[in-house]
Design a protein that fits this description.
This protein is mainly alpha-helical and about 525 residues long. It contains 22 helices and no strands. The longest helix is centred in the first third of the chain and has 38 residues. This is Amino-acid permease BAT1-like isoform A. InterPro entries: AA/rel_permease1, AA_permease, Amino_acid_permease_CS.
Length: about 525
C-alpha cells in the first residue's frame, strides 16, 4: 500500500495516519488534505443512500407513477430504471476508484479528457453537477414543505372536513425554515454529521420496512396480486393513449428517486481508504436502494384500490396519493386517520435527512469547484473553518436552493422545470466523464483497485446511451394537446442551462479557468 513513501512530518503531526491509501492517492493527484478524513465505508454509503432516499423519491412522485401506467409502471418500471442506473453506478465507481477527490465528476472529466480539452470538459461537467445538486436540494426540501402542508391538512380534518390548507407563501416559508435548519446542521463538525448520516440510513431502511408491512396489513381493502403485477392504468386524463409511451413517462418516478449517488464521490476526501471505499459506497447505496425501494413500492401498491380517487384533488389529502393511501387505510379500520398521519411523519423525517445529506454533498462540491477557481468569488467558497468544515460553501448552497424554490410562487411550471434539472442535469454530469472514459481516454485510463476489467468500455457505453435515452424521454410532452400550461419545460430548462454555461465559458471562463488546479 505504498507504506515505503515517507510522508512529510506535518501530515503525521496532524494525526492523519500515514498509511491511508486514499490520502496517498490524493497526494499523487496533487491536492493537500484539508478536510478531516474521518468517515468509514459505512458512513460514505450512508450519505449516498440517504440522498437516494427511497422514501423521498417514491413518496414525492408516486402520483406520476400512478397516473402514467399505474402498478405496471411502478413495479416493472422500477426494475428497468434500476438495472440501467446500476450500470451508470458501476461505471462511476470504476472512475471514482482511480480519482478519489471531492470534486468528483468534473475532476474525472478533466483527467479523462486529456490536457487539451480538460478545462472545457471539467467546466461543463462541474456546472451541470453543481446546478443539478442545487436543484435536488431545492426539490427535496420543497417536497418536505409540501408534505408538511398535507400533514397539517389531514391533522386539522382533511380537505373534506374543513382542514387548514396552507397557501403557497406558507409552503415557501416552511421551505426556508427547513433549509435554514439544514445549513445549521451542516455547519457542525463532520464527526457529528457522519453520525446523523448513519442514523438517516438506518431510518430509511427501518421506515420502509415498517411502512411496507403496516400499510397493507391495516388497509381494509387490499389490491389483488393480479392488480399489483398486471394492472395497467391508461386513463390519465392527459390525452395520451399509447401504452408504451405512458409506461416510459411513468419511469420518471424511479429515475428521479435513484439520483444523488455522486455523494459518495464528493465525500471521498473525508473517507478512509477512499480509492476502495468510495466505489463500495456508490454501488452498495444503489444496490440496497433498489431492493428496499421495490419492497416499498409493492407494499404501498397493495393498498391501492381506486386509482382515480387517490389522484383526485377532492380526496382528504388534496390529491397527494400516498398521503391518501396512509390516511384512508387507518381511517377505514379505526374511524380516524391518526396512524396514517404518523406514517407520513416517518416519511417526513426521511425527507429531512435526505435534504440534510444533499446540502452536505452540495457544499463539498462547491468547496472543490471553487478550490479550482471555477466559481465567482472562489476564494471565499473554499475557506474551511476550525472544524475543517467548508462553512461558506454550506450557506451558499442553502441560499441558492432557496432562490430556486421562489419560482414556485410565480408558476408551478417554472418550478417543475427546476426539478427536471435535478434529474437530467445531474445525469448529464454523470454521463460526461463516463463518455470521456470510453472515447478519448479509452487507451490511457489507469484503473484503481476497483475496476470492471475488460467490460469497462461496454458498461460505459451502455451507461452513456441510457442517459441519452432518459434525457430525451423526460423532455417529451406529458399531456396533449400542448398549451403553455401543459408544455414540458425540461428541454427549455436544460437547454438554457447549457447555453448559460457555454456562454459563460466563451465570454470569460476560457481565459482563466485551466481545469483542476493542484494545491500542494
Amino acid at each position: 500500500m505504498g507504506s515505503d513513501k515517507i510522508l512529510p512530518s506535518h501530515v503525521v503531526a496532524n494525526g492523519h495516519a500515514p498509511l491511508d491509501s486514499g490520502h496517498a492517492r490524493l497526494k499523487e493527484l496533487g491536492y493537500k488534505q484539508e478536510l478531516k478524513r474521518d468517515l468509514s465505508v459505512i458512513s460514505n454509503f450512508a450519505f449516498s443512500f440517504s440522498i437516494i432516499s427511497v422514501l423521498t423519491g417514491v413518496t414525492t412522485l408516486y402520483n406520476t407513477g400512478l397516473n402514467y401506467g399505474g402498478p405496471v409502471s411502478l413495479v416493472y418500471g422500477w426494475f428497468l430504471a434500476s438495472a440501467f442506473t446500476m450500470i451508470v453506478a458501476l461505471s462511476m465507481a470504476e472512475i471514482c476508484s482511480s480519482y478519489p477527490t471531492s470534486g468528483g465528476l468534473y475532476y474525472w472529466s478533466a483527467k479523462l479528457a486529456g490536457p487539451r480539452w480538460a478545462p472545457f470538459a471539467s467546466w461543463i461537467t462541474g456546472w451541470f453537477n453543481i446546478v443539478g445538486q442545487w436543484a435536488v436540494t431545492t426539490s427535496v426540501d420543497y417536497s418536505l414543505a409540501q408534505l408538511i402542508q398535507v400533514i397539517i391538512l389531514l391533522s386539522t380534518g382533511g380537505k373534506n372536513g374543513g382542514g387548514y390548507e396552507a397557501s403557497k407563501y406558507v409552503v415557501i416559508a416552511f421551505h426556508g425554515g427547513i433549509l435554514f435548519l439544514h445549513g445549521v446542521i451542516n455547519s457542525l463538525p463532520i464527526s457529528l454529521l457522519s453520525f446523523l448520516g448513519q442514523l438517516a440510513a438506518i431510518w430509511n431502511v427501518l421506515g420502509v420496512f415498517v411502512l411496507m408491512i403496516v400499510i397493507p396489513s391495516v388497509a381494509t381493502e387490499r389490491a389483488s396480486a393480479k392488480f399489483v403485477f398486471t394492472h395497467f392504468n391508461a386513463e390519465n386524463g392527459e390525452g395520451i393513449n399509447s401504452k408504451p409511451y405512458i409506461f416510459l413517462l411513468g419511469l420518471l418516478m424511479s429515475q428521479y428517486t435513484l439520483t444523488g449517488f455522486d455523494a459518495s464521490a464528493h465525500m471521498t476526501e473525508e473517507t478512509k481508504d477512499a480509492d476502495r471505499n468510495g466505489p463500495k459506497g456508490i454501488i452498495s447505496a444503489v444496490g440496497i436502494s433498489i431492493v428496499v425501494g421495490w419492497g416499498y413500492i409493492l407494499g404501498i401498491t397493495f393498498a391501492v384500490t381506486d386509482i382515480l380517487y387517490l389522484l383526485s384533488e377532492d380526496n382528504d389529502a388534496g390529491g397527494y396519493a400516498i398521503a391518501q393511501v396512509f390516511y384512508q387505510a387507518f381511517k377505514k379500520r379505526y374511524g380516524h386517520g391518526t396512524g396514517g398521519i404518523i406514517c407520513l411523519v416517518i416519511v417526513a423525517v426521511a425527507i429531512f435527512f435526505c435534504g440534510m445529506s444533499s446540502v452536505t454533498s452540495n457544499s463539498r462540491m462547491a468547496y472543490a469547484f471553487s478550490r479550482d477557481g471555477a466559481m465567482p468569488l472562489s476564494s471565499l467558497w473554499h475557506k474551511v473553518n476550525k472544524q475543517e468544515v467548508p462553512i461558506y460553501a454550506v450557506w451558499l448552497s442553502v441560499f441558492i436552493s432557496f432562490c430556486m424554490a421562489l419560482t414556485s410562487l410565480g408558476s408551478i411550471v417554472a418550478f417543475e422545470a427546476m426539478v427536471s434539472i435535478a434529474t437530467i442535469g445531474l445525469y448529464i454530469a454523470y454521463a460526461f466523464p463516463i463518455f470521456l472514459r470510453v472515447t478519448l481516454a479509452r487507451k490511457h485510463f489507469v484503473s484503481g483497485p476497483f475496476n470492471l476489467g475488460r467490460y469497462g468500455v461496454v458498461v460505459g457505453w451502455v451507461a452513456v446511451l441510457w442517459v441519452l435515452t432518459i434525457s430525451v424521454l423526460f423532455s417529451l410532452p406529458v399531456s396533449y394537446p400542448i398549451t403553455i400550461k401543459t408544455l414540458n419545460y425540461t428541454p427549455v430548462a436544460v437547454g438554457c442551462l447549457l447555453i448559460l454555461v457555454v456562454s459563460y465559458w466563451l465570454i470569460s471562463g476560457r481565459r482563466w479557468f485551466k481545469g483542476p488546479i493542484t494545491n500542494i
